[in-house]
Amino acid sequence: MHSEPPVDEDAITLILQALRFAARKHSSQRRKGSDQSPYINHPIDVLDLLWRVGGVRRAEVLAAAVLHDTLEDTATTPAELEAAFGREVLALVQEVSDDKRLPKEERKRLQVEHAPALSEGARLIKLADKISNVRDMRHTPPVFWSRQRREEYLAWAAQVVSRLRGTNAALEAEFERVLREG
Ligand code: NDP
Ligand code: ZN
Question: What is this structure's pTM?
Answer without folding.
Answer: 0.95
